[in-house]
Amino acid sequence: MTTTPRLYRKPVSAFWWLRRRSYLIFVLRELSSVFVAWFVVFLLLLVHAVSSGSEEYQRFLSWSASGWVVALNTIALLFVLLHTVTWFDLTPKAMVVRVRNRPVAPVVIVGLHYLLWGLLTAIVLLVVLR
Prior knowledge:
Layout: H1 21-51, H2 54-64, H3 67-94, E1 98-99, E2 102-103, H4 106-129
Antiparallel strand pairs: 1-2
């Protein structure tokens, strides 16, 4: 009878991701996808309420003004902002842009993403607050 040696596996804590800041940011970014999905569901509920008439829309507004929905949307906004910032910072690693056969500096790619984000935010604010 031959036995094969068992390899030693060091036990890993369930909170291994709390040891380093980069691990924590990674896990929080992955968790943020749940809140992105919540925003999609919330938007679909809003579209449904608007398309169902003013009574349904008023019901949606009163529901969305309840404390727990406001708190959930505030937390979701923070997670979506984290998601956006971390993905913008990762963009130069995932996408190599060349202009005249030379790679564009990562700071330019990230800067253009933030510039476009700011421009689109300004446009949305102008449309909404007008």
